[in-house]
């Protein structure tokens, strides 16, 4: 009984090793790690570089502190309201999330576009398609010519 159980464990371990050794699993793991690092960079870019420009154009409005308290009390900031346990409608955080999403989506779009361009350049110029051979007369045109020749001989 113990041997059968041990054999199942060995088989399962072998299957797991085979699964992990597959290239697509390793590629996915690398992609997740790079994605997490890229997310940190993009978040910093948005928070530290782009949001200050947005606040210039919006008159210094801090979207993160735009909220409505759903109940009693007045609070100076969203953090103070949340710390006090007040129910808040934090629409400013949502606005910033949408802005961040649009910026991140644009950055990813530009990254993918440049990677595709680099891939195309690395693959070399595409071979130009050979020009099409001139087409001859259609079947109807040939039959009409044969008919006309036969009429002329008759």
Please identify the structural class as seen in this structure: mainly alpha
What is the CATH homology-level superfamily? Large-conductance mechanosensitive channel, MscL, domain 1
What value does the Rg take, in angstroms?
Answer: 34 Å
DSSP strand content: under 5%
Summarize the biggest pleated sheet.
Answer: 2 strands, antiparallel
Short key terms for the protein model shown above:
5 helices; Non-ribosomal Peptide Synthetase Peptidyl Carrier Protein, Chain A; 2 strands
List the topology elements:
Elements lengths: L1 H20 L1 H35 L10 E2 L8 H6 L4 E2 L1 H33 L15 H15 L1
Antiparallel strand pairs: 1-2
Please describe what this structure looks like:
- The protein is mainly α.
- The protein has one domain: Non-ribosomal Peptide Synthetase Peptidyl Carrier Protein, Chain A (Orthogonal Bundle).
- 71% of the residues lie in helices and 3% in strands.
- The protein contains five helices and two strands.
- The protein has a two-stranded antiparallel ribbon.
- The longest helix is centred in the N-terminal third of the chain and has 35 residues, at 23-57.
- It is elongated.
- The termini are far apart.
- The model has no long low-confidence stretch (mean pLDDT 80).
């Amino acid at each position: 009984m113990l041997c059968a159980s041990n054999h199942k464990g060995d088989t399962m371990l072998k299957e797991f090793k085979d699964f992990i050794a597959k290239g697509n699993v390793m590629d996915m793991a690398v992609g997740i790690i790079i994605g997490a690092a890229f997310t940190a960079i993009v978040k910093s870019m948005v928070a530290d570089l782009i949001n200050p420009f947005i606040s210039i154009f919006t008159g210094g409005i801090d979207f993160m502190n735009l909220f409505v308290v759903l109940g009693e009390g007045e609070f100076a900031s969203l953090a103070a309201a949340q710390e006090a346990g007040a129910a808040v409608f934090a629409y400013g955080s949502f606005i910033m999330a949408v802005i961040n999403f649009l910026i991140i989506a644009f950055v990813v779009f530009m990254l993918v576009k440049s990677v595709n361009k680099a891939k195309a350049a690395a693959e070399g110029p595409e071979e130009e398609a050979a020009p099409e051979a001139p087409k001859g007369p259609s079947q109807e045109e040939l039959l009409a010519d044969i008919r006309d020749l036969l009429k002329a001989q008759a």
